[in-house]
């Protein structure tokens, strides 16, 4: 994630530098940079959504990894199903993006 944010910062700096320059190649450079910026922003959003999915899955995974999860669960049925439903919704949203 940090790598993507650093790259996004470099792209934005290049955009500012290219806008200050004058010349024939400026229009082409400006046209390519916004596409690269949008691509990086999409990658960052994908990483954030993946992080949310992982966080939503942590407690159910711990619950199911316990030896007596069926008789003495860590989470009740409603919170467990709610977390898994939220993870499923996040997964579908991530797939559509």
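Q: What amino acid sequence fits the structure above?
A:
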């Amino acid at each position: 994630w940090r790598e993507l944010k650093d790259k996004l910062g470099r792209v934005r700096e290049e955009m500012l530098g290219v806008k200050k320059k004058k010349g024939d190649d400026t229009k082409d450079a400006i046209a390519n940079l916004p596409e690269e910026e949008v691509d990086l922003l999409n990658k960052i959003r994908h990483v954030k959504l993946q992080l949310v999915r992982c966080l939503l899955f942590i407690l159910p995974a711990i619950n199911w990894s316990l030896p007596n999860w069926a008789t003495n669960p860590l989470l009740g049925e409603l919170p467990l199903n709610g977390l898994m439903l939220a993870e499923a919704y996040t997964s579908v949203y991530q797939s559509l993006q």
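Q: And what stands out in the fold?
A: The chain is about 80% helix and 0% strand.
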